[in-house]
Amino acid sequence: EVVRVYSGAMRAADSHTYASFARLLGWADETRTLRVRANADTPQDARVARNFGAEGIGLCRTEHMFFEGDRITAMREMIVARDEGGRRRALAKLLPMQRADFEGIFEAMKGFPVTIRLLDPPLHEFLPHGGEENKLLARTLGVPRAELNRIVDGLRETNPMLGHRGCRLGITYPEITEMQGRAIFEAAVRAKRRGIEVLPEIMIPLVSTVKEFDHQRAILEDVRHQVLGVMGEEISYTIGTMIELPRAALTADEIAETAEFFSFGTNDLTQTTLGLSRDDAGRFLPAYVERGILPHDPFQVLDERGVGKLIRMAVADGRRVRPKLKVGICGEHGGEPRSIRFCHNLGLDYVSCSPYRVPIARLAAAQAALASPR
Fold it and tell me: What pairs with residue 327 in β-bridges?
């Protein structure tokens, strides 16, 4: 019945189960100190998240917006462009699409913070990998098939998770960061002019050095000056980073000099700390757990002694430099009760999880607060 109410198939007033459910979550919300956000990539996802009680978006993965309809064609056009001019022409087609999505998300959140992660995955993920789809794409883009094959082959990486992705893309192709920054700021102004309070938090991914962060931040600040200056508006915003590499955690004090928030990407931080591929480790991790080598699957329950130690160090070092540094997590662990307890005890500001795990996270945060008041 609860799901039927949330989906609009049943009125809340007609469900005693939903009334009890809402009462329990109300008590949880009065008790917890840890905020609960949701990972949401589209306006529809954001609306679902709000229905489940999310207090903002902790991770909006902008790349997911590029896989729909005409967007994937424009994205592929950008990737195969021969020069910067060609990339900018393709990005100009993507700009209004991203801007509309961001405006819709701001509208759905209505004053709650929205953390938007800049483009993260390697570019080859957007391209077909042979066959008829390659042939069709070559015809659509007016590119010789042999040249397209050469481009696709050139983008393949032996270890793409540690390859040309995240902020490395924005450094190599700053026009991508420019387009995304422009889409965010223009969407924020449009939403504000419609009476919607907006709180964008722009997140730079896969940073390992403060110079990477500062490079991307400078581009975003320049775009902000251009957009807000022309539109004659002021927007409250912050720029921070996703801590998902051990070096970023170990140099958090340097990064906090200019980053206004940290969001721990615990999926990748677990991979890079334990040296495990999340896509492949399922072949042997059950045996590790069964034989007591690991207490839990570290991709399901946060590894407090290893990954948790890095997070603890980064939070302490970051807040020593910037005492009011906002800190949260946005990996799958954000909806897991034992991991949520760790986040509460460490003094994080929020956790972020999938929309459908938000009620679980709200209850777990309350249980953590009762067990260890802060």
Answer: 262
Q: Which has the minimum average pLDDT: 8-17, 60-69, 314-323, 361-370?
A: 8-17
Same domain? 204 vs 254: no
Residue 80's CATH number: 3.20.20.60
Could you say which DSSP state residue 34 is in? Answer: S
Nearest 10 degrees: Cα torsion 25, 30, 32, 36: 60
Q: Cβ distance 60 to 116 under 8 Å?
A: yes
DSSP state of 209: S
Across 161-173, average pLDDT: 96
- The closest alpha carbon to 221, from 168, 173, 260, 172, belongs to 260
Coil, strand or helix at 39: strand
Last residue of a domain, one of 205, 237, 269: 237
If asked whether residues 186 and 272 sit together in one domain, one would say no
pLDDT tens digits, residue range 44-58?
Answer: 999 989 989 999 999
Strand boundaries in the chain, DSSP class E: 35-39, 57-61, 113-117, 199-204, 238-243, 261-264, 326-329, 350-353
CB 268 within 8 A of CB 244: yes
Q: How far, CA to CA in Å, does 169 sit from each of 71, 209, 222, 362? A: 19, 15, 18, 36
308: nearest Cα among 345, 351, 342: 342
- The domain of 172 spans 45-122+157-237
Same domain, 232 and 248: no
CA distance 4 to 146: 52
Number of domains in the chain: 2
Quick: pLDDT tens for 89-107.
999 999 999 999 999 999 9
Identity of the residue numbered 178: E
> Which amino acid is it at 288?
Y
Task: Name the nearest CA neighbour of 306 among 278, 276, 277, 337.
Answer: 276
204 and 163: one domain? yes
Residues 54 and 360: their CA atoms lie apart, in Å, by 11
Domain boundary, last residue among 237, 269, 295: 237
